[in-house]
Design goal:
InterPro entries: EGF, EGF-like_Ca-bd_dom, EGF-type_Asp/Asn_hydroxyl_site, EGF_Ca-bd_CS, Growth_fac_rcpt_cys_sf, NOTCH1_EGF-like. It comes from Araneus ventricosus (Orbweaver spider). This protein has one helix at about 280, and strands spanning about 10, 20, 25-30, 40, 55, 60-65, 70, 75, 90-95, 100-105, 110, 115-120, 125-130, 135-140, 145-150, 150-155, 165-170, 175-180, 180-185, 190, 200-205, 210-215, 220, 225-230, 245, 250-255, 260, 265, 275, 290-295, 300-305, 310-315, 320-325. The chain is mainly beta. The chain folds into five domains: about 10-65, no CATH class; about 80-155, no CATH class; about 160-225, no CATH class; about 230-275, Ribbon (Laminin); about 285-325, Ribbon (Laminin). Strand 7 and strand 8 (about 75) form a beta hairpin. It is flat and about 90 Å long. The protein starts with 7 loop residues before the first strand and ends in a 5-residue tail after the last strand.
Length: about 325
Amino acid sequence: CDCGQGFNCTFYVTYLLEKTCDCPEGYYLRPESEYYSSRCEAECSDERPCQNGGTCSDLKRCDCPRGTSGALCEEISYCSECVNRLEVDCLYNQSQQTNYCSCKNSSLYYDYDTKICKTCPCGNGNCEYEISYSQKRLKCNCHSGYKEFNGYCKKCECDFSTIGECEFDLKGERLCKCQDGYYERNGGCLPCGCTMYGDLDTKCEMVGNVKHCFCKEGFQDTNGHCEDINECETDNTCHPPAVCHNTFGSFYCQCPEGYTGTDGSRVEPGEVCEDINECKELAVSCRLWDNVMCVNLPGSYKCECLQGYKPERYAMQPRKTTCVKSKFLR
């Protein structure tokens, strides 16, 4: 009789010799299954939370994500590739729902081909894995003042801190990418000085030694000033029935009531709003009323009487129809 370490097992003398586990407060009896015998498992709570992204249900049981198991989702599956567990931890990536191997010495990285911890080749940075469900790609998390180039952290500094960013081109040459309103000059960022156009809605570029000022996307030049373009008054790309809403320098499309998009009620320009089937997705719809069925409509729904019934009350309100048996039905 195995109820788990530290738990009591009681046998009942029957012709089947039945047994049961006595679980203390804070634990529950997990039923026997094809893979496990019945045993005491910990209940989840604020003091004993589910691990690795698991959620605690109303029954105080952990709903574990793919690749984890155990009462509190503390067990990670498929850890066999993380050999030499004295030096290597098997960890869980919640966003990708997959495991990965991590060396306990943070200056090392785990080589999946040789199954050993090796010195990080990044130099001035730490090795990290970019993890997806299908692959694990090694990348460098470089220290301040360095950027990754061809798997190595290379010094990359420009003469500014908050108004630009240092990058490398394909040949490994340093580039100083300045913020809007500034231009690069000798490894630093200088203000454009496009004051006649304003600051928030203006860009500048240097072509040779000549400065060019122009309006950002979403603005237009009106008598030497950048003014917001109201895309909702022009040929915007909001797909019907989405409604266009203008913003400063841009716009967005919003689905009307009864429709949904990829980001709640908002959709990308040109993206189609999908009708919500209230008969399937709403818990109430017509279920509050007698002898009716739910009929989905574009952007809405209505309640209709079943065959052989007629409206009794709220006949003019299609969502509050109470139906009675028709006296003309034989």
